[in-house]
Structures are given as C-alpha cells and as structure tokens.
Amino acid sequence: MFSLDSDSTSQVEADVDSISESTIKGERVIFKYLPAYLFEEKLKEHASSNEYSKYYNGLYNISKRYPWLEDIFKKLSRNITLVQRSYVEGDDFNKKRCYDLNYWLYNEVYKNLQSSEKDLIYFNEITTDLKRAWKKIVDDVFRNDHYKCYPDEKLLVNMGFLQEIKDLFDFYEDFNEMKKEIVDDTYNSCFKYVDYLKQRIPVYYAWRDSCKVDDFACKRYIDDYMKYRPAGIVSELSYISVILTYPGNPCYSSVYDVFIDAKVQPKRNDDIYRRKMEKLAKENPRGNLLLTDMGDGLRESEFFIPGDHDVYWYRKGWGIYNRITHNITLPMLGIAGVFLILYAFYKFTPLGKMFKHTRAKVRRRIQPNINYDDIVLLYGSEESLASSSVDSSYNLSYASSLS
User: Fold this and answer.
1) In the predicted model, what is the mean pLDDT of the chain?
2) Which residues contact 5 (CB under 8 A, 6 or more apart)?
3) Between the CA of residue 303 and those of 3, 219, 228, 263, 272, what are the distances in Å?
4) d(CA 109, CA 126)
5) 120 pLDDT above the threshold of 50
6) Is 142 in contact with 194 (CB distance < 8 Å)?
7) Pairing mode, strands 395-396 and 369-370
8) Mind spelling out the 3-state secondary structure of the chain?
9) Which range has highest mean pLDDT (118-122, 190-194, 291-295, 377-381)?
10) Out of 64-73, 84-93, 350-359, which region has the weakest mean confidence (pLDDT)?
11) Could you tell me what percent of the chain has a pLDDT over 90?
C-alpha cells in the first residue's frame, strides 16, 4: 500500500502522457495533459524580467547571499499576475490556483535551502519577506480586482502538510477529466490510472473529512468537495462490461484493494499536524519542523482518528464475489467453452456429419421407427424421401403430426 509519509520512489507505467515528478513526499505519477499539471508548469516557466522589482528592495541584502532569489523575484511577480488574470467567474478552482501559488513559493525556497541545515534556518525569514512583497503588489496593482489572491498566513508551514494538501487539490482538479475517460473506456483506463490512484486515493480518504471544517485548508479552498467523490464514478460505469471483463482484468482487483486499504487508514487534518508540531517544538525548541510528518506511529498516538469502518460488509461481500469468480465462474466458463467447441465440431464439420450418419444407421437397426433428421442423413436430401417412401422396411414417424 502507498504510504502518505513514504519518501521512496514509485514505479510509473510507461505512458507518453505520464511522468514521474519528485516531491518532498516521494515520486508522484503526473499526467501531462491534466489541468493541475498544466497550471503548475506555467508557475515554473522561465521569467526574464521583473515588472514589480521595486517591491523586493527589502530583500536586497539576503539576495546577495542567495543569488537564486533573483529568479524567484521574477517568477513571483509574473505568477501573481498569472493567478489574478486566471480568475474566471464561477470556476470551482479559482481559489485552488491561489493555493498553488502559495505552495509554489514555499517549495521553491525550500528546494534551494534544503542542502544545508544552516541555510534552512533562514526559510521563515525569506518566505515572510517574499509574502510581504506579494501582498503589497496585490494591494497596489490589483486593488480594483473583484478577486485577490494573497499569501495564506493560516497555512501550516510544513512541507509534508503542504504536499499532501496539494495532492488532494490536484486530484479534485483533475477528477472530471479522468472521470470521462474511465466511464468511456473503463478497461483501458484502469491500467492507465492505477498507479496514479494508488497515490491519490489514500490522500483523498485521509483528508476528505477535513473538507467539512471551516477553518481547515480544504474547506477554505474547495467549495464543494462532494463533487469529486471517486466512489461516485461507480454508478456511471457499465456494470455488464465490468462484470464480463473482471475475471480477465487483475487491474480491477488492484483498484478495489486501493480503496479498501485507504478507507481504514487514520484520518488527517490541519489540527493534527498543528498539535504534533506544537508538541515537537516543546520537546525540541531548536528542531526543524519543516519536515515533520505523521509517520507510521499515528495510529498509536494521541492524534489518532480512526478511518472509515463502514465498508466491512461490502468488503466481505466483495471477497465472496472474488472467490466465486475465481473458483467457480472461471472453471464453469472453461467447461462451457469446451462444450461449445465440441458442438461446433459436431454440427458443422465433415467428421461431425459422418458421426451423425453412423448414428442414424445404428438407430435404423435397433428401432422400428426413425425420425425425420435421420432419414435426411441416410438418403442425403429431402427429395430422396419421395422415392424411398414406398419402401415398407421403413416406417416413418412424425411426432409433430401425431400430437
């Protein structure tokens, strides 16, 4: 099972549309045509100029120590404009794009500082100054805009937390595109998206309930998380198609197992992260909380919130169905296939016709009456019946005419 705290790599299916992207939580399967990736790439694009350079004057000294900040200044200025101009009235992901900008900023600074513990101590100072410049730009340049994307001071400054929330939001944004493919071509889409789902479904079920709480990040950025319920796709699938292809498609079982495992893992939310970070800060005031994660010990800790357990009977029933499918259905299909082959061989081949002719001769010898089909076999055609009907050695019986 995929672990939310794993930093190990994940095998990516060979696909022209997918790539493997390195994150703080390990490798991620990314599809290059999905909207979340497309917008992320815009944030990363090269920026050659800085139209708001005056807002970064307060960072002059620290930019001398870290020259890479000049590139961030340019991209941040460009990206603020990008997000503001990407606003579309009624778009469900206007606020999500603002989260993307917040995440991008934290991630860019972290990537440039992570190689040195001494440098990481400047993370908060640098990001605070950058967010101050960002806010000033929005207030001055976009003050008349209906929507304003500001740095989010409520976000927990923890890279693991930020990555998990990004995974969740990306899944929501990509949901409708994937849903179309899965409904239209369930068989092939299963193989295409199974690795992606192994990573995103555990995140979805771990964080889903946080979307109900007003002060948590999910609720603040996603207005209606119920629109993106993965289990809701099932009702739109072709049941007959899935049932007929299930025995020969192990991918379906893999996806089912992903859902079952994801639903029983502990819940996560902003408050759990916050409380754990506060506890660690008390235990080690000089420690670095940027990389704090929940870890495998969450289930045994005071932060434990049990996962969904309402799937027991569904899981039990599906297990029985699996056993029936593999232990009974497949052998029965095999036997039926053998009989169909033998029937076709008997009915439509010369050897089958010879066998039926021999059977008719045997019946003629041991029975006083023989049926119409046997007469045709013995005499070769219906026309021959007229010439042979006077032969008193044969007594034809037509059961249908006597009934």
Assistant:
1) 81
2) 25, 160, 293, 294, 295, 296
3) 18, 21, 27, 18, 6
4) 8
5) yes
6) no
7) parallel
8) CCCCCCCCCCCCCCCCCEEEEEECCEEEEEECCCHHHHHHHHHHCCCCCCCCHHHHHHHHHHHHHCCCHHHHHHHHHHHHHHHHHCCCCCCCCHHHHHHHHHHHHHHHHHHHHCCCHHHHCCHHHHHHHHHHHHHHHHHHHCCCCCCCCCCCCCCCCCHHHHHHHHHHHHHHHHHHHHHHHHHHCHHHHHHHHHHHHHHHHHHHHHHHHHHHCCCCHHHHHCCCHHHHCHHHHHHHCCHHHHHHHHHHCHHHHHHHHHHHHHHCCCCCCHHHHHHHHHHHHHHCCCCCCCCCCCCHHHHHCCCCCCCCCCCHHHHHHHHHHHHHHHHHHHHHHHHHHHHHHHHHHHHHCHHHHHHHHHHHHHHHHHCCEECHHHHHHHHCCCCHHHHHCCCCCCEECCHHHHC
9) 190-194
10) 350-359
11) 52
| Residue range 253-306, pLDDT digits in tens | 899 999 999 998 899 999 998 998 898 889 888 878 888 776 556 676 777 787
| The two structure tokens encoding residue 54 | 């005056």
Q: Which residues contact 345 (CB under 8 A, 6 or more apart)?
A: 351, 352
- State the pLDDT at residue 397: 43
Residue holding tokens 């992570």? Answer: 114
CB 151: neighbour CB atoms within 10 A?
20
Q: Which residues contact 26 (CB under 8 A, 6 or more apart)?
A: 6, 7, 8, 9, 10
What is the token pair recorded at 44?
A: 């990363």
Rounded to a whole number of angstroms, the CA Rg of the chain reads 34
The pair of three-digit structure tokens given for residue 242, joined into one six-digit string: 């899935």
Q: Cα separation of 97 and 222, whole Å?
A: 11
The angle at the Cα of 80, spanning 74 to 85, to the nearest 5 degrees, equals 130
Note if the pTM is more than 0.90.
no
Structure confidence at residue 323 (pLDDT): 55
Under 8 Å between Cβ of 294 and 4: yes
Closest CA to 164 of 19, 300, 273: 273
End-to-end CA distance of the chain: 68
